Amino acid sequence: MDTPGDEFTKIDQMLPKKKGQSPKDRAKEIEGVLDWCRTYNVKPVDDGSVPGFKKIGSIPISRRSPEERKDDVDNILTWIRAGKPEDDDMADEFKKIDTMLPKKKGQSPKDR
Fold first, then answer.
1. How many CB atoms within 10 Å of residue 77?
2. Rounded Cα gap, residues 90 and 71, in angstroms
3. Can you tell me the distance from the alpha carbon of 13 to that of 46, in angstroms, rounded to the nearest whole number?
4. Measured in whole angstroms, how far is the alpha carbon of residue 23 from the centre of its chain?
5. CA separation (Å) from 36 to 13, 24, 40, 97?
6. With DSSP H G I counted as helix, E B as strand and the rest as coil, what are the percentages for the chain, rounded to 5?
7. Mean of the pLDDT values across residues 7-24?
8. Residue ranges of the alpha helices (H) in the chain?
9. pLDDT of the residue at 54
10. Banded pLDDT at 1 (limits 50, 70, 90)
11. Distances (CA, A) of 35 to 12, 16, 23, 40, 42
């Protein structure tokens, strides 16, 4: 049967130790883990109920050459300088990227 001391010991072993950490800070860190476990109704000790992870295959991605990346930047800059026209073939992709990037005061189109 697990005792509270066992829980503390297991959590203490799982958490990475920080250089120069005081015992009081370590106790607060362990307390934080226990609070999280209580909040999410999770047992702090491993009872073997969680199955192991299985590996999944890799996701194929296309590699872009430096020249292709430069062409992409040039195309986006041209689109921005032209006033972000809707009739451009790549307008949908460019709009998506444009909305993701934050606009900073005084930032030039090239810096963006």
1. 14
2. 13
3. 12
4. 30
5. 17, 18, 6, 36
6. 50, 0, 50
7. 86
8. 4-14, 23-39, 66-81, 91-100
9. 79
10. very low
11. 14, 18, 18, 9, 10
Both tokens of residue 88?
Answer: 């451009």
- The pLDDT, as a whole number, for residue 25 is 92
Rg of the chain, C-alpha, whole Å: 26
Residue 72 tokens read as: 């992409």
Confidence band, pLDDT 50/70/90 cuts, at residue 67: very high
The token duo for 37 is: 């476990």
Tracing tokens 């226990």 back to the chain, one arrives at: 34
- By three-state DSSP, how is residue 14 classified? helix
Helices 66-81 + 91-100 axis angle, to 10: 90
Find the mean pLDDT for residues 10-39: 88
